[in-house]
Design brief:
2 copies of one chain form a homodimer. Chain A is α+β, with helices and mostly antiparallel strands. Chain A folds into 2 domains: 41-154, 60s Ribosomal Protein L30, Chain: A (2-Layer Sandwich); 166-325, Alpha-Beta Complex (Phosphoribosyl-aminoimidazole Synthetase, Chain A, domain 2). Helix content of chain A is 36%, strand content 24%. The first copy, chain A, has helices at residues 16-26, 61-64, 71-89, 108-124, 175-184, 191-202, 208-217, 230-241, 254-262, 267-273, 289-298; strands spanning 42-47, 50-60, 95-102, 128-136, 141-151, 166-169, 220-225, 244-247, 280-284, 304-310, 315-319, 322-325. In chain A, the strands form 2 sheets. In chain A, strands 7-9-6-10-8-11-12 form a 7-stranded mixed beta sheet, with helices on both faces. Chain A has a 5-stranded mixed beta sheet with strand order 1-2-5-3-4. The longest helix of chain A has 19 residues, at 71-89. Chain A is globular and about 60 Å long. Chains A and B meet through helix 1, strand 1, strand 2, helix 2 and strand 3 of A and helix 1, strand 1, strand 2, helix 2 and strand 3 of B.
């Protein structure tokens, strides 16, 4: 029996972002908080120009895990989504804590799978799990907290984009959305393409090497990851930096183009409004663009230039002479993943 | 629908401590980890003799919240139980992150109550909530992570108790257990006593000032909080320090004595094996006992001497000529709180 919130309500259900706003408004704000509420990570001053970087992100199987994803993959993903936020800020994750809620029926083998997924995710990015807590819950709940240390002035926040800056991303978009669709429905797709797309949804990778390289380069004016989709990420930078964007290129992955065509889906939709992408979306000072490109190439990655920052607050994509407004929407949760 | 763990199983359900052991065995251990697995907090080296102190502890309404406790109280308690672990290590909590899982039916008023409970708990102990995450879950899940900074050599671990050390606690025990019993059943209890006992269960307080004072005094050889009960805490220090205990005094609260007598309950049971207590259990070098006492008095608290550390691994209580073995049991969860 749940002691709280068992009644059906007449009010409209609250959206996740509304909840976060309600909570933030009622919290006393830490004086001289190094990173404002609403950025990808939080921070706490360590003195001598350094900050502790902190992040927590929770995965709940009922809403965040598509069918076809194993428990090991889900647990690893819970780590990756946290690491991705560190990547966007240019910070190395050092230590992880994990709170696990599990049904009483959990088996030894399942607990082992969870432990292995946690360890795999952490070690993949050079971090270690150093502690945690377990408890009984109706769902599988995996709440990961990450700790790292950064030089305060080197942190890439969402708020530094200036008109004239170049907008770039670390990879092509749409694979995860397409992969998720394939996992959940019947789509016409070649086995070769299918495998790659499904893999994107089940085994996401955080762009940590790229983020660390960009952070060191000093070329980035604003940065965010794209776990809520490309459109949402752009709108978040726009809001935090008080600017607009003019994109002249849609970074759609080739396989996504093919998949969309074969299934009469809109590739633009998959690219802009899909969620659970883990590319970085950054703005770069034009005179330092080459430096950023070289830094990321050295780290084994690539920068794809997709447009520029504008003083006007519009959010527009112009391709092949067609103008299209980029809407502020994205995934909040997989509401319909089962 | 839950994607994982929906089947009824034939195996015996795993106990929380078994799960933690399974997980720890499968994790790669951070080299030179400043605090071993299994202590109250985790840590990560910051250089120059300092460590980042990290802790996460999760509250799930279905198993951790007794009837009669409000959502505000439950949320505040989720903070207090984390702060209590910091208190036991002598570390000031600075910043909190919170992962909230809530049913879709949650109302605006309930979210406000949660926010206020978080803020109240944090501010009560000089900390701030600096970030978090929300998601949909079947239960109300409140996972709090705490960050602080400590001088590594000043951390009070579980492992430093030596034969001859004095065992002391920061207050009398049994109030929370008695309060919980009153909340859940029909007991014979005077209104005046009832109020205090129920308050202990609903509004626990972490002994942070006491813990910080003890930490600074340098007199403590081992320390732990008592959220799993006094007996369990003693056994944990014994295990980590490879020692035993001879107690010559049972620190039972006067009201608990009365409550037990009126209801034919065993006061010893309530004192040793009740859970959700937030007193500190410490061992102190004998020649520094006075120093510890003075430090804690200055902080507004008190030390109650209950026995001494022994080289023999037994765990014994000797009062009024009677000898009684203290068993290694305590609350893992409120399995039957509703």
């Amino acid at each position: 029996m749940l002691p709280f919130m068992v009644r059906k309500r007449s009010e409209e259900p609250l959206r996740e972002r509304e909840m976060i706003e309600i909570i933030q408004r009622r919290l006393e704000v830490m004086p001289r908080m190094p990173v404002p509420f609403g950025d990808d990570v939080s921070a706490c001053d360590l003195g001598s120009g350094r900050v502790a970087v902190l992040k927590t992100d929770m995965l709940v199987d009922r809403t965040d895990v598509p069918k076809g994803m194993s428990l090991w993959q889900a647990t690893r993903k819970a780590v990756v989504m946290n690491v991705s936020d560190f990547a966007a800020k240019g910070v190395q994750p050092l230590a992880l804590l994990v709170s696990l809620g599990m049904p009483a029926s959990v088996s030894r083998k399942e607990v082992e799978e969870i432990a292995d997924g946690l360890n795999a995710g952490a070690r993949e990015y050079g971090a270690y799990v150093v502690g945690g807590d377990t408890g009984e819950a109706s769902d599988v709940v995996i709440s990961v907290s990450v700790f790292g240390v950064a030089v305060k002035d080197k942190l890439m926040l969402r708020s530094g984009a200036r008109p004239g800056d170049v907008v770039a991303v670390t990879g092509f978009f749409g694979r995860s959305s397409a992969g998720l669709k394939i996992l959940l429905g019947k789509f016409d797709v070649e086995p070769k393409i299918r495998r790659g797309l499904v893999e994107s949804a089940l085994m996401p990778h955080a762009r940590l090497r790229e983020g660390l390289a960009l952070g060191k380069s000093g070329a980035v004016s604003a940065s965010i990851d794209s776990s809520d989709g490309l459109a949402w990420s752009l709108h978040e930078i726009a809001r935090a930096s008080n600017v607009g964007f003019l994109l002249d290129m849609l970074p759609v992955a080739e396989e996504v183009q093919e998949f969309a065509k074969a299934n009469r889906l809109d590739a633009l939709d998959l690219t802009l409004y899909g969620g659970e992408e883990y590319e970085l979306v950054v703005t770069i000072k034009p005179r330092l663009y080459k430096k950023a490109e070289e830094a990321i190439a050295k780290a084994g990655g690539a920068l794809i230039r997709i447009g520029s920052v504008t003083a006007e607050k519009d959010m527009v994509l112009m391709t092949e002479g067609k103008k299209c407004v980029i809407e502020p929407r994205g995934y909040e949760h997989f509401k319909d993943i089962h």
